[in-house]
Amino acid sequence: MMDKVAVVILNWNGKAMMGEYLSKVVRLSEEATVIVADNASTDDSVPFLQAKFPEVRVIRLNKNWGFAEGYNRALRLVDAQYYVLLNSDVDVTQHWLTPLVRFMDQHPDVAACQPKLLAVADHSAFEYAGAAGGFVDALGYPFCRGRIFDTVEKDHGQYDTTAEVMWTTGACMVVRAEDFRRFGGFDARFFAHNEEIDLCWRFRIGGKKVFCVVDSQVYHVGGGTLPKGNPMKAYLNFRNNLTMLYKNLPKERLRRVMLLRWVLDYVAAYQTLLCGNVGDFKAIYKARHDFRKWKHEFDGERQKIQQMRHETDSGQLAPCSILWQYYVRRHRYYTSLPLTK
Question: What's the pLDDT score for residue 226?
Fold first, then answer.
């Protein structure tokens, strides 16, 4: 029998986080089946789950497939109407699922939604990974209601309105299973980072909508697998972001955006070098090199995405440059951005 809601936590060496937060997920998710998909952890995560949480179903994957393909493989084995993708370092709250599921039930044109994401370390502040819903600027840089680059806002209720957004955070997102399958799931080649933005962009190109439902809120630790400052994180973010743009941008914008990003990425690389961060400098160079080598592997998929573009074309980017607004105009908050054309 199909479950209505399946909360699926993708785990890789997250025993400590699950020990901290999983019991609350189980207790406060009565309307859902809770599943942990393990990416071949080496920290005794599976024996720990079997001993402490026998009620939780465990899917054991044969190696670390990363976030993207790990979820793809796990979700093929989950029969549910809604998938709730949840990081192991998320502290859920009372009735956190109810408004999310209710919203999806009431809006069949919505493919995915997220709650308001606040920080475990400071419950009065948004959390970097998704805040109150994400967007992408004219040059492909992600930002959120509540977070632009490294400026994370305090939550004063300024975004307490359920709103359509461009992408939902992979830290906690509800996805309609039918749409996840129809739009091809996550791009496995990304491994991790930007895969949820890429998927949400495809949802929107195909005429579906994505929302942040602020009646639900959870708290996120963040940075558990690859903390900020890790060169691999910089590499994956740059490579995958460029690939996402190559796949999804309309033809008339692709050349200009890619040329500007070529300049800006190398500026970013040399800026990190001047700051003494040799690891990130090398990571950005390698990301540019590897993107150039593999981008034509995506030509067929790019063509399919362009053909799929819905007549409403709700996949457009924000009509401004976040770099310009943030560093030149000094607009550090979402509410001060010129987001209307």
Answer: 52
**163 contact partners, CB below 8 Å, separation of at least 6:** 132, 133, 145, 211, 212, 214
State how far Cα 235 lies from the chain centre.
16
- The confidence score (pLDDT) of residue 22 equals 98
Look up the pTM and report it.
0.94
Taking the alpha carbons at both ends of the chain, their separation in whole angstroms is: 48
Splitting the chain (341 residues) into consecutive groups of 10 residues, what average pLDDT does each group show?
Answer: 95 96 96 96 95 97 96 98 97 97 98 98 96 97 96 97 97 98 97 97 95 98 67 96 96 95 96 94 97 96 86 70 95 90 50
Q: Output the pLDDT for position 137.
A: 96
- For 167, 264, 329, the CA distances from 160, given in Å and listed in that order, are 17, 34, 26
Tell me the three-class secondary structure of the chain, residue by residue: CCEEEEEEEEECCCHHHHHHHHHHHHHCCCCCEEEEEECCCCCCHHHHHHHHCCCCEEEECCCCCHHHHHHHHHHCCCCEEEEEEECCCEECCCCCHHHHHHHHHHCCCEEEEEEEEEECCCCCEECCCCCCCEEECCCCCEEECCEECCEECECCCCCCCCEECCECCCCEEEEEHHHHHHCCCCCHHHCCCCHHHHHHHHHHHCCCEEEEEEEEEEEECCCCCCCCCCHHHHHHHHHHHHHHHHHHCCHHHHHHHHHHHHHHHHHHHHHHHHCCCHHHHHHHHHHHHHHHHHHHHHHHHHHHHHHHCCCCCCCCCCCCCHHHHHHHCCCCCHHHCCCCC
